[in-house]
């Protein structure tokens, strides 16, 4: 049954071709929303495009760094709700060359929020995707929303800034904005093979041992993508409530895993425990332990996960098994 809240609502999604963006668009379309998707690069392997969902949206071509594109998208499409998911999402890429990450993640955020401020008469909901990386390293875990944001490495800093800029616009200009902080998001459609979940699944499907860049002891939250998309929609729907506007919310299953534990889970499900991971211990610019407390989201929003690690991973493995067994996909996947 459609949610009447999103039916016929005009929604702008940045990062629509990304992992979460593709699933969020799918959810919005199923609820009857009119979706406008910002697309920088046409990637035929994106779930948004492969599924055909892109043909049900209005596409704006352009980059977050271009303010005029964002302002035009909001104004000409009479946007009432914005989901800002667009970002450079790879920690290693940010470490190797920080400038594009800082430009996209920081400039892109204030460009979008400024366009929303200019068209405040149109925009009624803004959800900004941040990350547990915004907190930086802490000796006290799990992270709670009242802890300081103190990213150090380039990717962390870009997310700290994204967060703080959003808080500034919400406080200074009363923009109806809220912030979503998640840990490591996994699910079907993530084609960044350097990430642990898709990389491990692909290795096991090929009969190869997976590669772990760290020492395997890094501890993280892992949250399934459909849970994240649902969280963003729930946050957007509640954004004008007194306890929500201008606030940040952690979303987490509250059951962190080490990288080795995650790989072992995938191996058990896929029955590949005989393939032992290759541990490189070469990760740089990454925090050893990060995980979130999501009690605020539970108490204020009534949010909870629908998938545990096993059920989310089973759906993810099924997606990749289907994807990688398609001859056309096997031909065009880069290592």
Could you walk me through the main structural features you see in this protein, from its secondary elements to its overall organization?
The protein is an alpha/beta fold. It has a domain at 10-188 and 222-254 and 290-306: Rossmann fold, CATH 3.40.50.720. Helices cover 41% and strands 14% of the residues. The protein contains twelve helices and 13 strands. It has helices at residues 19-30, 47-50, 67-76, 91-96, 98-118, 154-173, 196-205, 225-237, 259-270, 295-301, 309-324, 327-332, and strands at 10-14, 34-39, 58-61, 81-84, 125-129, 177-182, 184-186, 211-212, 219-220, 222-224, 248-251, 257-258, 278-279. The strands form four sheets. Strands 3-2-1-4-5-6-11 form a seven-stranded parallel β-sheet, sandwiched between helices. Strands 7-10 form a two-stranded parallel ribbon. Helix 1 links the parallel strand 1 (10-14) and strand 2. Helix 1 (19-30) crosses helix 8 (225-237), helix 5 (98-118) runs parallel beside helix 6 and helix 9 crosses helix 11 (309-324). The longest helix has 21 residues, at 98-118. The N and C termini lie far apart (41 Å).
